[in-house]
Amino acid sequence: MCGIVGYIGTQAATDILLSGLEKLEYRGYDSAGIATVLEGQLDCIRAKGKLCNLREKLESQVNPSRIGIGHTRWATHGKPEEYNAHPHTDTARRLAVVQNGIIENYRELREGLKERGHEFRSDTDTEVIPHLIAEFLSSSSSISPSPLLEAVRQAVNKLEGAFAIAVISADYPDEFIVARQQAPLVIGFGKGEFFCASDTPAIVPHTNAVLPLENGEMARLTSLGVEVYNFAGDRLKKSPRTLNWNPVMVEKQGFKHFMLKEIYEQPGVVRACLESYLNDDWQPESKNSPINLGLSDELYRDLEQIQIVACGTSWHAGLVGKYLLEQLAGIPTMVQYASEFRYAPSPLTPNTLSIGVTQSGETADTLAALAMEKERRAAYCQNGNRPSFQPRLLGITNRPESTLGQMIPNIINTHAGIEIGVAATKTFVAQLMAFYCLALDLAYRRQTIAPTKLEQIISGLRQLPAEIEVILESQERYVENLVHELAETQDFIFLGRGINFPIALEGALKLKEISYIHAEGYPAGEMKHGPIALLDAKVPVVAIAMPGNVYDKVLSNAQEAKARDARLIGVTPTNDSEAADTFDDTIPVPAVDELLSPILTVIPLQLLAYQIAAHRGLDVDQPRNLAKSVTVE
Ligand code: F6R
Q1: Per-residue pLDDT tens digits for 379-438
Q2: Distance CA 303, CA 262 (A)
Q3: Is 628 among the catalytic positions?
Q4: Mind listing the domains of the chain with CATH numbers?
Q5: How many Cα atoms are found within 13 Å in the side-chain-facing hemisphere of 100?
Q6: Is 2 a residue of the active site?
Q7: 91 Cα to the center of ligand 1, angstroms
Q8: pTM score, two decimals?
């Protein structure tokens, strides 16, 4: 939520900041702004709305400044107006600050600062920061290592909440300061030039050498190098690491939208996951697990229960995970919304594995839920209670370098590659793959799966990439035809059952978030307990009907909807006459084992949402009010 960038070096800062912000626009796009220092003056330009408005404002300017900071905003405190846009400045307009996060104690800080004569110009929580820094600068006698660094250090020690900030000052034109507390911040190391950003896509076009700051760390960036300190002022020894990325990964590569590109990347994502975690030479008679996740055995020992915490699409992946962990490995599994779990955690149970699922690794609620779980379990054991209550944490993420990756040693990296479209697609499929691997590994170790079944599932997994390709190749015919008729529909219902119920939820979420059409996902059997009252000829019902345990049930639930005149669209294989008779339209998917089907059934639903939104001329990659990485509570 909100993206910040910073640059110091040998090139004109404005262009680098703008291209960095472009890569971070997925984090928020309510307003944008940059501040540079030139000839002893601070130049701060801001614009309401998307980055293109800021670009337009800057077009007529020639600004050779080689230092600057920038921001793209997702509004929390204060309307998305220019006067609330970052960077914010102190009363004398000598220093500027950009922030991602929320300063929880800003009201009391603001009152105090106002009483001491500071002049506020915005409604934001962020504005207290430049005023505080200015106050410390004027009262500080410190010269070593830098007065600006010392003033920022004193200011951040006054702040409560989650934040990542970058600060420049007209009085200290050869340095900028960054600090991080519970919000992501990465430093990039170029040749004679240094960068900071909320996320690596803004840095990789310039360098692959990056250093993610940890909580309670700050840094001073000059054209000579980077010094890292903690908030107590102690210098820390840190070295950058090399990112295995190339800049092309953050381009659209000929696709109209990032979301469409990411949908088409899914066969490759499944392949990458299989290559990483499936033992190539595994045979049913082998003496080892077909899966190698590289996790500590401690996580698995005497496991009695699993609890999954996540938000949004990752929560849907968690629901599929629950199904797999319970049905394949026989482990009771709970799935919690992280935002609910934080304030109403389930009673502690022994030998419990807590899994945080977050593609970004930065979702504030998920991180806080995991931190709370770790803390309360450790405290319980320290009080002399049974060691079987010790925390066991596992993260499933697409960004092992994220805050989650720093917080939890056991990580399943989903290897989906960077996802730019705000609506999650390929990262969801990758999370499902992580759950297949985890559930199969556990099932093998606990001997809850017959060798023939295991072999059958492994072979089914291997065929998935080609099967997704078949769906993608045929999508134009089926989905596009439907889109013309459905694009102006006001309400959609998605039905699924068993392992495909979470896919119904995910299909509805995709449609809501990018096309702004109201949609609900239901377990097909629940329809008649209320929601069926919504149905008439104007409400299309998309039903996922895959041969298996609940196939006949879903078809008869679909018939109930049909009897209420609903237009029925089936996500189903084409080879069944009963299904053909039931549905008005079908979006065919290959007939696979029901257990593996979510990886296929979600694809047409992603495409349906995408095509409808694109047909309506909406901004598919940056839907209104949303941001990709939700770093506030
Ligand atoms: C929906 C979507 C969101 C995220 C949610 C959690 O398309 O992208 O619902 O799934 O904000 O994000 P992560 O997985 O980064 O924790």
Answers
A1: 999 988 888 999 999 999 999 988 899 899 999 999 999 898 999 999 999 999 999 999
A2: 36
A3: yes
A4: 3-250 (3.60.20.10), 252-449 (3.40.50.10490), 469-633 (3.40.50.10490)
A5: 41
A6: yes
A7: 38
A8: 0.84
